[in-house]
């Protein structure tokens, strides 16, 4: 959403008029009712003014994925824009967070409700469905779960396919970002002949089973890197073999850093390039499925044109440290701390700036930028 609005609002001069640009950009975006019953009441007047909260859900669809497998939300992010629309805050909810998921009937496989990990809400909402129906019902149950947990009624929502980010990075010619901890890939490597090969056998639940003999995994060492599209997607998927052993918290942070790096590069390289910009608009559009909350995308774009890359703050729930508990029937789950719940109340009440000032260590460091090297 941040990448898309920046593209749509900063590039009018380059291509001869914002009206054409907005038409080109919004025409590529898939529109769909995602929020459903989690949206604000229909009779409520919807306007772009005031503080806004957008629920962003990242899904990581794989080539040749078994359609019978449940689709879980890989990343769950609340994008908070304060009332003055001058900046934005990204708050990631750990996908293993223990929550109460409400009962829900998707018309195919009803869910009776109960405690589970928050990423399961998307899976339970989409059970027995395929295509756009699976996306809309999965998102709706997740949004209802977030609403019950936080008291936040999302103003808009978007599903972002991380596979689509490969296309954006392809248009940019790669993305340069700071890798803040050495990360070993469990998905991509090469054999003794130099041919691509999987370095680890993976269990059905996505965890590592064992190392495959004769295959060397890709390793992203700590420091500045310029990643090609395949490397970028591989890096942001990793959570198992991180040097700091921070697992999902590390992956959360790396995905946030990746999105900010892409946005910074779009601004610095793509907006004034008549050859790159059309491809970027198309790639961004194909990456997102959007519920605009009844507010035209053009209004969203113009209202948030001031949110530049350096005005986006990423915040760590639980301060980026584990607060795990084994729950019968669920397994190891993350428990949101009282301070994390305070953060979510700050998102609801538009007091995030005050929370950040009181908890500076909860801000995720993006690391040095390419301009620092």
TrEMBL record:
UniProt protein name: Transcriptional attenuator, LytR family
Signal sequence extent: 1-24
Protein family membership: Belongs to the LytR/CpsA/Psr (LCP) family.
Pfam families per UniProt: LytR_cpsA_psr
InterPro entries: LytR/CpsA/Psr_CW_biosynth, LytR_CpsA_psr
Domain named Cell envelope-related transcriptional attenuator: residues: 72-266
Keyword Signal included in the entry's annotation: yes
Tagged with keyword Signal: yes
PANTHER family from the UniProt entry: POLYISOPRENYL-TEICHOIC ACID--PEPTIDOGLYCAN TEICHOIC ACID TRANSFERASE TAGU
Record's keyword terms, sorted: Signal
């Amino acid at each position: 959403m941040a990448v898309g609005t920046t593209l749509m609002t900063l590039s009018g001069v380059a291509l001869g008029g914002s009206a054409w640009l907005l038409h080109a950009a919004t025409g590529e975006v898939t529109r769909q009712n995602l929020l459903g019953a989690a949206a604000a009441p229909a009779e409520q007047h919807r306007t772009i003014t005031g503080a806004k909260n957008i629920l962003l859900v990242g899904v990581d669809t794989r080539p040749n994925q078994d359609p019978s497998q449940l689709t879980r939300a890989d990343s769950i992010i609340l994008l908070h824009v304060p009332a003055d629309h001058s900046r934005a805050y990204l708050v990631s909810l750990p996908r293993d967070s223990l929550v109460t998921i409400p009962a829900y009937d998707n018309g195919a496989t009803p869910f009776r409700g109960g405690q589970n990990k928050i990423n399961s809400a998307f899976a339970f909402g989409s059970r027995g469905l395929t295509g756009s129906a699976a996306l809309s019902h999965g998102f709706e149950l997740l949004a209802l779960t977030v609403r019950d947990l936080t008291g936040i009624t999302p103003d808009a929502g978007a599903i972002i396919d991380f596979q689509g980010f490969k296309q954006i990075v392809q248009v940019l010619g790669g993305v340069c970002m700071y890798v803040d901890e050495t990360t070993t890939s469990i998905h991509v490597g090469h054999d003794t002949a130099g041919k691509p090969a999987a370095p680890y056998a993976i269990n059905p639940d996505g965890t590592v089973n064992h190392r495959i003999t004769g295959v060397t995994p890709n390793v992203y060492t700590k420091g500045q890197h310029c990643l090609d599209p395949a490397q970028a997607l591989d890096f942001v998927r990793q959570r198992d073999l991180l040097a700091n052993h921070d697992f999902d918290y590390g992956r959360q942070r790396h995905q946030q850093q990746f999105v900010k790096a892409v946005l910074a590069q779009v601004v610095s390289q793509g907006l004034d390039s008549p050859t790159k910009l059309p491809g970027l608009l198309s790639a961004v559009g194909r990456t997102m499925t959007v519920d605009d909350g009844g507010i035209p995308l053009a209004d969203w774009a113009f209202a948030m044109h001031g949110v530049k890359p350096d005005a986006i703050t990423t915040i760590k729930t639980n301060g980026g440290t584990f607060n795990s508990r084994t729950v019968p029937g669920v397994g190891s789950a993350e428990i949101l701390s009282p301070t994390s719940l305070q953060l979510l109340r700050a998102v609801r009440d538009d007091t995030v700036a005050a929370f950040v000032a009181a908890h500076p260590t909860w801000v995720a460091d993006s690391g040095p930028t390419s301009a620092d090297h």
